[in-house]
Amino acid sequence: GIQVEQSPPDLILQEGANSTLRCNFSDSVNNLQWFHQNPWGQLINLFYIPSGTKQNGRLSATTVATERYSLLYISSSQTTDSGVYFCAPLQYGNKLVFGAGTILRVKS
Amino acid sequence: DSGVTQTPKHLITATGQRVTLRCSPRSGDLSVYWYQQSLDQGLQFLIQYYNGEERAKGNILERFSAQQFPDLHSELNLSSLELGDSALYFCASSVGTSDTQYFGPGTRLTVL
After folding, report:
1. How far is CA B92 from the centre of its chain?
2. Which residues contact B106 (CB under 8 A, 6 or more apart)?
3. Residue among A101, A62, A28 at smallest CA distance from B43
């Protein structure tokens, strides 16, 4: 099956800083989603991004499907951005395969 | 709020017991997925139903089973529970089979 690698595994930021999270995947995909898991365990949809670039407020994502990677940009980070960020390509048209995640801590 | 509901939020039970987790998908969604999140395995896909029929299976144990009912809600049955089944169980739904999946708040299962 597809392998998903996320980097960095851990990230500590000062409030207001910017960051880039990376997701590499081993096979071509038709879809990819980014999620934020907050400290209460909720998985929040950030982006559905099989290719190209999308922006939503301070967050944006880019997927380069031909090179098998996706990037999540967080600008002007806030303490509420803390949590775990997961990348999940869609395999076989139906199941999401999750990476190990990036743990983000934003300090005030 | 994703529109996907799961009950119960927390469940504490003993080894050897059987439990049922319930999921109601977003209005209009025909696909329901179950995922398990544990400390050692991470987030992994268990099973998918589409409009009442099983569509895909992942790393689901034989002690686990699921079904989707005519009103499209789904239940995940876990039997002969072991300590290692303690995890957060998520349900997700989507319109079709390749569309954005929206996740419910999860059911946290603790097996003592």
Report:
1. 8
2. A41, A42, A43, B6, B9, B37, B88, B89, B90
3. A101
- Closest approach of A78 to chain B, Cα-based (Å): 21
Q: Between chains, do B42 and A43 touch, taking CB under 8 Å as contact?
A: no
Burial A87-104 (b: 16+ CB within 10 A, else e): bbbbbeebbbbbbebbeb
- Measured between beta carbons, the chain B residues lying within 8 angstroms of A48 are 99-100
- Facing residue for A94 by CB, picked from B44, B55, B90: B55
Task: Name chain A contacts of B55, Cβ cutoff 8 Å.
Answer: 94
Express each pLDDT in B60-106 by its tens digit. 999 999 999 999 999 999 999 999 999 999 999 999 888 899 999 99
Are the Cβ atoms of A42 and B108 closer than 8 angstroms? Answer: no
Residue with structure tokens 């600008």? A75
Which one-letter amino acid corresponds to residue A73? Y
Nearest CA-CA partner of B99 in B45, B10, B53, B30: B30
B49 touching A (Cβ < 8 Å): no
Q: Which amino acid is at A61?
A: A
Measure in Å the smallest separation between the Cα of B58 and chain A Cα atoms.
8
Encode pLDDT of A60-80 as tens digits. Answer: 999 999 999 999 999 999 999
- Maximum distance among all alpha carbons in chain B? 38
Structure tokens that stand for A7 in this block: 């980097």
